[in-house]
Amino acid sequence: MAPSTYFLLISLLALATSQAIASDPSPLQDFCVADIHSPVKVNGFVCKDPMAVNADDFFKEANLDKPRDTMKSKVGSNVTLINVMQLPGLNTLGISLARIDYAPLGQNPPHTHPRATEILTVLEGTLYVGFVTSNTDNGNKLFTKVLKKGDVFVFPQGLIHFQFNPVHDKPAVAIAALSSQNPGAITIANAVFGSKPPISDHVLAKAFQVQKGTIDWLQAQFWENNHN
Known about the structure:
The protein is an alpha+beta fold. It folds into two domains: 162 residues, Jelly Rolls (Sandwich); 41 residues, no CATH class. It contains four helices and ten strands. The longest helix is centred in the N-terminal third of the chain and has 18 residues. It is globular. The termini are far apart. Keywords: Apoplast, Disulfide bond, Manganese, Metal-binding, Secreted, Signal. It holds the Pfam family Cupin_1.
């Protein structure tokens, strides 16, 4: 093999390797407790002075064993998220979690987490769950499963997913772990029909292939956020 060809192959391999590891870096210290009040703005949070860190920075009295109120929610669910904003010790650690309570026939409507994969464990009740793949030549494939107590399901990062309690007379509860300190949530209906200012009804009517009056009616609804 000519030296120039060998050098090109090595360069391409190095480039591919650098791209493969170009994700969130691993922490470079034991912890980086978020200084929520710092005026410095970075992609995340700057570190609190380690000498000022104490055990409370890694603790939150969340009472996640207590049921949440789902009756005030139009969709019949209540998501209690514990991310870096509630627990500064999560900063740079790449994890967060949520408790999700579902009323009978309640749902966590179709949504995405732009920065996290989610793994869901059912603690009580039954859930019908699923996610939809991104656009392909064969369309968007739906993967679904009915989960019982103790079952686990994974929703890949960025894909639209949902959970629904199909039982008429019993609530359900799940715990979700997410692979980001701040996973974000985009509820599809809220984002499309409840944005401020609203998306042009002409745009949405053409996108959904319905009459403009249907879009106007949808945009006039109150799109609430079930994430606390």
